[in-house]
Amino acid sequence: MKRYFLVSIILLSIFYTSCIPYKDTLYLQNKSTATDSLQVIVEQQKPYRVQINDILNVRIKVTDQDNVQIFNPIGIGNLNASGSERAYFDGFTVDLHGNIRIPELGEMNVLGYTTTEIEKLITDKLLEDQFKETANIFVTVKLTGLRYTTYGEIGKGMQTIYQERVNIFEAIANAGDITDTGDKTDVLIVRQYPQGQKIHHIDLTDLNVMNSPYYYVQPNDMIYVKPVKQKSWGTGTNALQNISSIATILSLVTTSILLFQRI
């Protein structure tokens, strides 16, 4: 009888420790204040500054649009391309020196500039070399989609979203969400900087993640979701899966005990 009691205690311990806690599966929990309180979240996002290998979409409009055809090369590289491929052929890639090369204007250094600052650079250059104020120059510069990479316990691969602003939850949803065995409490973001790469940690189960400077995804980010420790144990992720496993183990243990008692 004592043996059965001991086995039951061991199995119950395995049951409670092998399940993934419910609180670790929920996003945006209010961990610091009462659940019925009103909390104002102030989102933090600094203007993105262009990096090497970014692809910029530059469009120039003037009163006489025929005069700027050379600045707006649409579909010259591959007329059958679409999406990110089309952006690659039509856009201006920032080279290793931080320059883009625009027809007639030549090379312009844009490394570390925001798109608004680049618009002003191009406008000033056009007024200096090509047009007068009466041409009513209007320049738009945009990133050709926000590209990032996901791997680990999430849909894997290079993702592209055609928006100027994407938060971490939108990026994860676009990749197919985090699996049941993914650790939402410590998601790693590998971010590019002029001096190299840095790794940042964010907790997606905490509501305060919206205050994080890494809440918004930047181009070329890598998002890595680690597995929870329960995955390496090979146990189930929920109670039903563990009950099935424990029932199998209990049956095996009971059979073994009966066999030993007969010996």
Automatic annotation (TrEMBL):
It holds the Pfam family Poly_export. It comes from the Bacteria. Residues 43-141 form the Polysaccharide export protein N-terminal domain. Keywords: Signal, Sugar transport, Transport. Coiled coil: none annotated. GO terms for molecular function: polysaccharide transmembrane transporter activity. PANTHER family: POLYSACCHARIDE EXPORT PROTEIN GFCE-RELATED. This is Sugar transporter. It comes from Seonamhaeicola maritimus.
